[in-house]
Amino acid sequence: MKNNFDLNNYPLWTALVTPFTDAGEVDYAILDQLVAQQQAANNGILLLGSTGEGLALTLKEQQAIVEHVCQLNPTVPLMVAVGGMNLKQQIAWVEYCNKLPIHGYLLGSPLYAKPGVIGQTHWFENLLDASVHPCMLYNVPGRSAVDIPPAVISNLKNHKNLWALKEASGDIAKFEGFRNAAPQLAIFSGDDALMPYFAQAGAKGLVSVAANAWPTQTHEFVKRSLSGQHPNLFADWSQAIQSLFAVANPIPVKVLMHLQGRITSPYLRPPLTHLELTQTDCISNANNTILSWH
After folding, report:
1. How far is the C-alpha of 272 from the C-alpha of 137, rounded, in Å?
2. Residue 12 lies in a domain
3. Does residue 166 have an active-site annotation?
4. How far apart are the first and last CA of the chain?
5. CATH code (residue 98)
6. Residues 77-120: pLDDT tens digits?
7. Residues 10, 166, 204, 254: which is the catalytic one?
8. Which pLDDT tens digit goes with each residue over 193-222?
9. pTM for this prediction
10. Which reactions are catalysed by this chain (predicted)?
11. Domain that holds residue 97
12. Is 207 assigned to a binding site?
């Protein structure tokens, strides 16, 4: 596998779903196909994020998935998610992945505990120190229950392994706060629908859920957003994107991928279930809209 990727050359990263069989086992044959689809679209691949149901997998499953994808030798870079609230365990996970031919980490803020500036600085600094790869920090207060304050980014901005930030609070003002704290930091939108706005504010790209279902179309969406020449993109995409978040991610996108034939089962690990999505008209309509979009 190539190890000399310039991660800044990949403005779209797909937060890859983890495909399961109806029995709830990882479906490696389908995983191969999903990797090939993202590779064909030239999208970077993020493994084991929240969209990949990473926290619902056992450590052995997490290890097996990363090793399996590495053995596929994709021609696009791989990023691996690091998340939880036990720092020792997360450092051990980073040290394990350091030995594999991956290219970056997504470092989530600690779950549930709600640490402040000092606690978060300590958390991220230890993970950055443990890494041998560039790292993207992840601000997602809707899942972690705490924002990353700009002061944390300011404290870490000179760390050699800090490459980027995924901003998924949905608040453009917070994006500006991060830019002011670390002007050289690459900031990626974590919200598909907000990508045109974030691009206007100086975002470098998108970490996407939608790209699972629409790899090439989402790649073009990001390209056009970054060009700044398509002011009507939000209207074209927002309704379609919203359908993928009608209930908790990644339920709708997995149901849609099952309808598309990309995955053989819409199974999700508990506590998530595809039964939460009681009607599929919205995602089917969204699929028709995006697949006819050009």
Report:
1. 25
2. yes
3. yes
4. 33
5. 3.20.20.70
6. 999 999 999 999 999 999 999 999 999 999 999 999 999 999 99
7. 166
8. 999 989 999 999 999 999 999 999 999 999
9. 0.96
10. L-aspartate 4-semialdehyde + pyruvate = (2S,4S)-4-hydroxy-2,3,4,5-tetrahydrodipicolinate + H2O + H(+)
11. 7-231
12. yes
